[in-house]
Write a structure and sequence with these properties.
- The chain is an alpha+beta fold.
- 34% of the residues lie in helices and 26% in strands.
- The longest helix is centred in the first third of the chain and has 37 residues, at 19-55.
């Protein structure tokens, strides 16, 4: 008869040391304390981040702010617009443009009599539905006819979001389209209109709302008698990188555009 040998690796519960149960209960008791410490640390980090968003100037940290806008046609609205204009015209870029006679200021969202009439009637997109405090609160455009360059300074209000605190990409494309169109107009004889043949927009980083941006445009190449290729970008007014890059082709239509 062959004796049965019990494997040495089998451990029965009665063989376990009695103090093991005490060890388990001690670990379970420490769990609430650990959770409390984590909660305290999380609250501290949130408080530091919340305070930093008020102290640091970068607009991406101001996602939680709900700015109260002035009422239309009020004294507060006039004060708001005056402060905005002061911010723009005391900037380094605008001071340089204003001091150079080669750059001519065109204030508003239209560059000819027909455009001004459309803006007055509310039929200009940027000067009508998109214009006003909280949206496109102001635009100032400087044109250099000799070099065929344009620099536009625009305030992006908090009501122009495509995502919370981020400017709608279609709006930025519209501003580039108008600015580059003004560049193209400077190339052709006076009285000629242009239309957009193509527009290639490259979004490089989010453009936060409630800030002043610069839209630049210049001629890249002339393509025959009726077409011109232009390039531009959207950037911060004071420092910072490029938010959006763009290249487009504009053409003089074969037939006059309807008025």
């Amino acid at each position: 008869m062959i004796p049965r040998i019990r494997p040495s690796y089998i451990i029965r519960s009665r063989d376990l040391p009695r103090h093991s149960a005490g060890f388990v209960s001690s670990s379970s008791a420490s769990t609430p304390k650990h959770a409390i410490r984590l909660a305290i640390l999380a609250t501290a980090f949130f408080g530091v981040g919340y305070a930093a968003s008020y102290l640091l100037p970068h607009p991406i940290l101001h996602f939680h702010r709900q700015q109260t806008l002035p009422l239309p046609n009020s004294a507060d609205e006039l004060t708001y617009l005056h402060r905005l204009r002061t911010q723009v015209f005391t900037s380094t870029l605008v001071a340089r443009l204003q001091s150079d006679p080669a750059w001519k200021l065109e204030e508003g969202f239209s560059q000819d009599q027909h455009g001004m009439e459309m803006a007055a009637e509310g039929r200009m997109l940027t000067g009508g539905p998109l214009g006003g405090v909280g949206r496109l609160s102001g635009r100032w455009m400087w044109v250099n006819e000799s070099t065929h360059e344009v620099v536009a300074v625009v305030h992006l209000g908090p009501q122009l979001c495509g995502f919370p605190s981020i400017t709608h990409g279609g709006l930025l494309a519209t501003l580039l389209d108008e600015t580059l169109g003004r560049v193209a107009i400077s190339v052709f004889p006076a009285g000629k209109s242009v239309v957009t043949a193509s527009l290639d927009v490259n979004y490089k980083m989010p453009t936060m709302v409630d800030q002043v941006v610069v839209v630049r445009g210049r001629v890249k190449a002339r393509e025959g008698e009726r077409r011109v290729r232009v390039e531009g970008r959207v950037e911060a007014l004071e420092g910072g990188g490029v938010f959006v890059g763009c290249e487009g082709v504009f053409a003089v239509p074969r037939r006059p555009l309807p008025r």
